[in-house]
Structure formats: C-alpha cells, structure tokens
User: Fold this.
Amino acid sequence: MATRRSKSPRDPDLPTLLRTGGGLALPPALERQRSAAVKSDLKDRFQSGREAERQAQRLWAQLQGGPAVDAGNAKTLDELLKLHRQFAATKVVAPGVGAEAGGFLPGRITAKVTPPFDYAITIPNVIVGQPTVSGASSTNGQLSGSAVTASKRGLNAGSWYSEMGIYFHPLSAGILRLTASPSFSFQFWTNSLGTSPVRSFGAASLGIFSLDRLGHVGGVAGAQMKQWDEQLSGQIRFDVGSSAGTPLSLQATVTPTLIYALFVALDVHVEGVGWPGSLAGSVLSVAVPSFTWDFELQPVLTQG
Assistant:
C-alpha cells in the first residue's frame, strides 16, 4: 500500500501554505480591518498634536492681515509663492521595481515574494482648509504620496497614507524574520514668514501588523527607511533626494492564532496658513521589488 509523503521544507508550495494558513480562507474583511487600524493610528497622532494646532491658531490670530505688503517686498513674496508652486508641480518618482526571482530558498523555511503582492490601501485625509493631497498604492510594488498646503490664506493641513504588502498565516508558532530593500525618492519644503506656523512631515517604513479572527490588532515597531519633520518658522527649508535600495529588517514571534500583514508604508503630512504666511510640501515615492521572510518553527518539547 502506497504511503502519502509528508510535506517537507523543500516542497515548493510550502511558502504558499504559510501565507494562507494551510489553505484556510482568510477573513474577507482583512484588508478593511487593516485600513481601519491605520486610520485609528493616524487619528491618535493628530489628536496628540492638538496643542500644537491650538498654538498655530493663536499665532494665526496674531498674524491676521499678514505681513505688510508694499512695493519693497511684494515682488519677493510673489517669487517665493512661485517657487512653492514649482515645487508642488514636481513629480517625484521612485526607481523602478526591478525583476527578481521569487519562490523558495533552500535551507530554512524561507521565501522571496515578488509582485503582484496581496493587498494595497490608500488613506487621504484633508484635516482643515484646502490642502492638495494625492497618491497611489499598487500591488505591483509602487507607492506614492503627496501633500501640499494651499496658497490661499487660512489654516490648512492634510495628509496621505499609502501601504502595500503580503499576508502571512503560520501553521505553528515560531520566529518570523522579514527583510526588504525598497528604493525611494523624496522632496519636501517649508516657507515661513516671521512666526507663521508651518510643518512638513514624511516617513516610509517596513512593518508587521497582526490580526486575530475577532478583529483585535497589534504589531511590532516599524523599521524606518526615511523620515523628516520640519516645523521651524521664519525660514525656508528644502531638501530632495533618493536611495536605490535601503536594507530593512524586522523580527517577531508569531503564532497560528493570528494572521499577519507584512508591509511597506509611507505617510506625508503638511500644515500652513497660506500666503503671505507659510507654505509647505511633502512628496514621497517608494518602490518595493520583493519581500523575503524567514520562518523558524518553535521546537516542541516532549517528556522522555
């Protein structure tokens, strides 16, 4: 009588099984629950900055009417506004996603996952006024986000969040190691007169998010590939750059009772009071050629 061969780490479909929990159907609302968790985190961040926002409102009240515009400085103010509009029109594109071989790597239970990935989400957020926010997220490994304050006078703030990743559902407890080498390009600027409040924030990171079938969420601290937070008044700040590949890694203890999202995300945010006053922009693009995960099963101890 023929015997059925048991699965071994060298079976080519084992990485697929580990991404689907042995073929069990993933909750249909998983992507929606991940999006809701991100929105909650962003809301908490905005709430923690309420005092800064109140201070901005106090300063704005003092600044009402704006700095005097006369023949001596009108041309300079117009040139600064023109510069802001030029920055805002610039397209920042991350290096392309190069072709990489996917599949199983021998030795440990290790796999490299290439596009198309499992999910992609975007979260635009106009907080106050009329900032311009835009972006995209695709399972082909491309993320982008742009937030630019309005030139019309008045408080305005907004943000854009993009995320893309894969699911992982282990069949047993163990240690998960996640690595990726995304490429990115960025541009940010602030332009503030006097004490006009202003802010340009941007961040991109690798992360692990966990979810149980009851909707409880968790995760581990992300690994940052790029971050800035410019908030100084009375000056002009500008920076632009790119990276062809930023090695990132995370490690977490995982269990079969949870489903995990392994992801790369970006977040851009701006605040300003219009012109004359303050202007800001935050633009970021990321390309993810692959995710590599390494899963080490937790040994089961038995009594002799």
Q: What stands out?
A: Residues 4 and 11 are 14 Å apart (CA to CA). The helical segments are 14-20, 30-48, 50-63, 74-89.
